[in-house]
Amino acid sequence: MAENRNGRAPGVAEAPPHYHGHRERLRERFREAGGDAVSDYELLELVLFRALHRRDVKPLAKSLIARFGSFGEVIAAPRPRLAEVDGLGDAAITELKVVEAAAQRLARGEVKRRHVLSSWTAVLDYCRTAMAFAEREQFRILFLDKRNQLIADEVQQVGTVDHTPVYPREVVKRALELSATAVILVHNHPSGDPTPSRADIDMTQQIIDVAKPLGIAVHDHIIVGKQGHASLKGLRLI
């Protein structure tokens, strides 16, 4: 039988690259044992497989973890920073952002239409998922009705790496527009340390002072970061 110029008989398929076998082994381990059986970089590989069909993505996944720190930090990284990574194109970035959106929506679903104060763990999980890895400060408000169920969840302000301007009267005005009777304030510390600053405490008290005469309660102010969270109410700072 004649051979082609690659030394392979006509009709005989070329052996797949070694990474094809790796992909199948990783997928099988995930199918059989679940997410706990794979590391952060391996979970990233599983996501990147969908966009990068003909590449060994293990080096790229390891590079992303080394650069950003963890799986969560990779998927939450801003698009411009992800685009700086060699070999990570639009399709792969979109896959990462789909995972981020799915995680946020899943976490938010655990909070929505439930009594917020009795599902506090779900509230904290959602806040961390939505904000802990953001590179700029965000000020988010959870608006609650008289049954302490979530009416709306809005980012009111986005600031710099260490400051977000907050206007107490605007917070209360929006609560009145939504007929909310209570709010939970949330913001992130991109530094990673959720310890409240003096400015955080003072701003919270200003919002309480404006909201209370109008019948709007401030249940808590939660600060989230990579290293955990802090509750001003839990710390008895409000």
Structure description:
By secondary structure, this protein is α+β, with helices and mostly antiparallel strands. It has two domains: 88 residues, no CATH class; 117 residues, Cytidine Deaminase, domain 2, CATH 3.40.140. Helix content is 43%, strand content 15%. It has a five-stranded mixed sheet, sandwiched between helices. Helix 2 packs across helix 3, helix 6 packs antiparallel against helix 7 and helix 8 packs across helix 9. It is elongated and about 70 Å long.
- What is the CATH topology assignment of the largest domain? Cytidine Deaminase, domain 2
- The mean pLDDT is 86
Shape: elongated
Based on the coordinates given, report the CATH architecture of the largest domain.
3-Layer(aba) Sandwich
Q: The biggest beta sheet, please?
A: 5 strands, mixed
Helix and strand element order:
HHHHHHHEEHEHEE
CATH superfamily of the largest domain: Cytidine Deaminase, domain 2
Radius of gyration: 23 Å
**Number of discrete domains:** 2
Number of helices: 9
Write down the CATH class of the largest domain: Alpha Beta
Major beta sheet, strand line-up: 2-1-3-4-5
Tags for this model:
Cytidine Deaminase, domain 2, 43% helix, 9 helices, 238 residues, 5 strands, single chain, five-stranded mixed sheet
List the helices and strands and how they pair.
Elements: H1 18-33, H2 40-48, H3 58-68, H4 71-76, H5 79-83, H6 90-109, H7 120-131, E1 138-144, E2 150-158, H8 168-177, E3 182-188, H9 198-211, E4 217-225, E5 228-231
Parallel strand pairs: 3-4
Antiparallel strand pairs: 1-2, 1-3, 4-5
Helix pairs in contact: 2-3, 6-7, 8-9
